[in-house]
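Is this the right way to post structure tokens for a design question? Let me know if I should format differently. Anyway, here goes:
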């Protein structure tokens, strides 16, 4: 049996227990909030970090969600404290929420460390909130568990189901090609987001919550439950009860998350056809647990992991279908030979125990191991003289003619340049061209926005072209698709080879060989490098300047250098 802490061993006891002037102040202020000793004496304090905001539709329900967690904490004899932290609303923050992921991670870490908290429940869902909260909580080194906000209901337009993001890109292309009317487009706007919850495709949000469950940081099955299903409230209450238990047993993920847990997460990512963004986030999360996760691990695991979940953007169905088909547990149950089933999870059980009884209820949505959608996962890591530190491509979600492709580059210096010239009739572009976007990486953009699914020229759309090979140092939305080489490192803004590409250069992609080659002689590249000048910095002060100074490249997870774990815990602040 796990040894249990005594009330005096609880962290919060160091704030409320001793009899001195400082603790007098703290207890008198608890009383000011209407609390009495019956609320805190001998009770673990469970912080509920709430990323609710009026401008985050994915977290619209988090006030009620937090109440359900509180109920669970109280039922189990703990003291709940709801604490707001930064809300990263994917659709509204400029230039990109990715610029602020590390800011939320820093806030999470410091909020947890500085307050009298014994365990934490993290409420997140919308893309960057999940990795940010987990990165911070791992660095704070407290027991915590994650309550995923849940996917929204399926979108619907007439007789068509609509998937977040994915169908917006699809019908935008149809509108520009003249295949649907402006009136149709307005109806799609009206029906694509029908309820609270995060994007219900297997985009970044669904991928990150699935990964988080696989890491063992949520209750089993939590990540697949639709946000508006009553079972979601019950899962939140159960998470509150579990957090109290974990405060007593000191079940601390920063101690149980090792390399094999992160490898399990990559298996899950590949099996569900997850977002390419997960690669950047997983590397960053692993860094906080002092685990090194080279890009090659993703490629190795991708090659041996079958894709089982038929979810958009790579497949057909949506998260609600996935939930009723058995959700993540039944997917993982098919893969136990590829997983380390002994990894411990936040309910104190192993991953194997958690998924042992999970069954598939709809074999169309979740394929069995014997009948996979593809024998391999959908993401490949590329190397070559154009990306010495790696690049990624989601080859499961693109036209297969690009698996091996060679074509002339059409280069855009930055996003404004792309927007300006995309539909210029004189742009020398054909269906075989390779679109190259520079200056869209962590420093160049800044913040490595989701610009990697470059829009196609109207002229090509009208001739029926729907995919083109595109290369950038940006990310792309997890709901996107197409032959997009992403995360090219080092990025153009710091003089990576991507900065040296010019119009007409031949570029060759070979997914099977995992290579991306710029067919320009080394001496010519050296000549161009000598001429190359960096663009002016985007920020000279404030958080933006800190970001530019400290952010690492995509293959290192884009965390700040000073936030990586060095294996030495940051000490708890002295109370006095
Ligand atoms: Fe929030 Fe997609 S916009 S999850
Ligand atoms: Mg997104």
């Amino acid at each position: 049996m796990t040894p249990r802490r005594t009330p005096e061993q609880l962290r919060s006891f160091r704030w409320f227990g001793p009899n001195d002037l400082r603790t007098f102040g703290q207890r008198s202020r608890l009383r000011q909030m209407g609390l009495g000793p019956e609320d805190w004496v001998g009770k673990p304090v469970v912080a509920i970090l709430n990323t609710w905001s009026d401008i985050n539709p994915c977290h619209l329900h988090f006030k009620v969600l937090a109440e359900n967690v509180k109920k669970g904490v109280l039922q189990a004899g703990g003291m709940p404290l709801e604490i707001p932290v930064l809300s990263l609303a994917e659709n509204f923050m400029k230039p990109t929420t990715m610029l602020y992921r590390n800011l939320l991670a820093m806030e999470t870490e410091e909020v947890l460390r500085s307050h009298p908290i014994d365990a934490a429940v993290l409420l997140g869902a919308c893309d960057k909130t999940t990795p940010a909260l987990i990165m911070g909580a791992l660095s704070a080194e407290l027991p915590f568990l994650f309550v995923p906000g849940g996917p929204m209901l399926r979108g619907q337009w007439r007789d068509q189901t609509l998937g977040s993001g994915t169908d917006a890109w699809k019908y935008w292309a149809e509108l520009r090609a003249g295949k649907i009317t402006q009136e149709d487009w307005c109806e799609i706007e009206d029906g694509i987001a029908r309820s609270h919850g995060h994007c219900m495709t297997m985009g970044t949000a669904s991928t990150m919550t699935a990964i988080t469950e696989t890491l063992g940081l949520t209750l089993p099955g939590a990540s697949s439950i639709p946000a508006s299903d009553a079972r979601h409230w019950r899962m939140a209450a159960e998470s509150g009860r579990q957090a109290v238990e974990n405060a007593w047993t000191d079940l601390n993920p920063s101690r149980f998350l090792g390399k094999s847990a992160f490898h399990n997460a990559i298996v899950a990512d590949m099996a569900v056809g997850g977002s390419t963004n997960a690669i950047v986030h997983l590397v960053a999360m692993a860094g906080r647990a002092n685990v090194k996760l080279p890009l090659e691990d993703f490629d190795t695991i991708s090659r041996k992991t079958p894709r089982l979940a038929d979810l958009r953007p790579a497949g057909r169905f949506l998260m609600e279908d996935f939930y009723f088909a058995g959700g993540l547990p039944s997917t993982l149950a098919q893969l136990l030979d590829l997983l380390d089933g002994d990894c411990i999870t936040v309910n104190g059980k192993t991953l194997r125990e958690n998924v042992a009884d999970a069954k598939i209820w709809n074999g169309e949505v979740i394929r069995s191991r014997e009948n996979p959608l593809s024998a391999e996962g959908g993401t490949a890591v590329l190397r070559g003289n154009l990306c010495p530190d790696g690049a990624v491509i989601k080859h499961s979600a693109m036209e297969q003619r690009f698996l091996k492709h060679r074509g002339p580059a059409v280069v855009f210096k930055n996003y404004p340049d792309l927007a300006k010239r995309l539909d210029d009739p004189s742009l020398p572009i054909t269906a075989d061209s390779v679109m190259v976007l520079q200056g869209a990486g962590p420093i160049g953009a800044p913040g490595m926005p989701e610009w990697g699914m470059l829009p196609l020229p109207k002229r090509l759309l009208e001739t029926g072209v729907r995919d083109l090979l595109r290369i950038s140092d940006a990310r792309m939305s997890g709901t996107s698709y197409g032959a997009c080489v992403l995360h090219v490192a080092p990025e153009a803004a710091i003089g990576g080879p991507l900065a040296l590409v010019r119009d007409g250069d031949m570029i060759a992609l070979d997914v099977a060989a995992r290579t991306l080659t710029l067919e320009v002689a080394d001496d010519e590249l050296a000549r161009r490098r000598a001429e190359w000048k960096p663009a002016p910095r985007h920020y000279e002060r404030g958080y933006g300047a800190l970001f530019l100074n400290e952010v690492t490249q995509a293959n290192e997870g884009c965390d700040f250098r000073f936030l990586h774990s060095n294996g030495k815990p940051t000490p708890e602040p002295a109370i006095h």
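Format looks fine. Someone answered above. Worth noting: Residues 58, 90-91, 126-127, 164, 198-199, 203, 205 surround FE2/S2 (inorganic) cluster (ligand 1) (CB under 6 Å). The chain has a mean pLDDT of 96.
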